[in-house]
Design goal:
Chain lengths: 113, 116
Amino acid sequence: DGGITQSPKYLFRKEGQNVTLSCEQNLNHDAMYWYRQDPGQGLRLIYYSQIVNDFQKGDIAEGYSVSREKKESFPLTVTSAQKNPTAFYLCASSPGTGGGGYTFGSGTRLTVV
Amino acid sequence: AQKVTQAQTEISVVEKEDVTLDCVYETRDTTYYLFWYKQPPSGELVFLIRRNSFDEQNEISGRYSWNFQKSTSSFNFTITASQVVDSAVYFCALSEAQSGYSTLTFGKGTMLLVSP
């Protein structure tokens, strides 16, 4: 079945460490996105990518980095520069044109300990 | 810039009551898409509906119905005869189709609690 796989489901990080969240899709979608969710804040866009080897900052990109070396993969690195990384992270993909077809992964819950 | 406002942070109802979740949006585009998603406690987002800006017909799907009014920039969601399984966070979202990219802008969500 086509879909998006995010791993791991739960992730614990020590302060000062970088951590990478995985996102893989087999939907042949051109566009991929990373959102962050905090209680009462809704989902906020971190980064998005329309094509391979190209990506754009979203509303809250500071302290994060991404890569898009393959169409299927869009990993997100939470760096030590991110001051408050504890959150729920959702990856999504879409065909790339406006109008939807968005598919979301099941999310990764990151906790800094 | 696009914006979605869900003024209701939390709503509590008793089973079988009808409940309406409000959504107001702002956009400069004439072509856009509106969405509703459900997020149960497990965290995944469940797609409920997509509506484009040229289709103002109301839609009904079982106990769910949506009222799209461009004149008031609103896209409200009504659950009829609510059930405990409807308890979740509901998000309204907007995608602009003419801006060259199609990111989703979400409201902050409304938590719906349905008690037996």
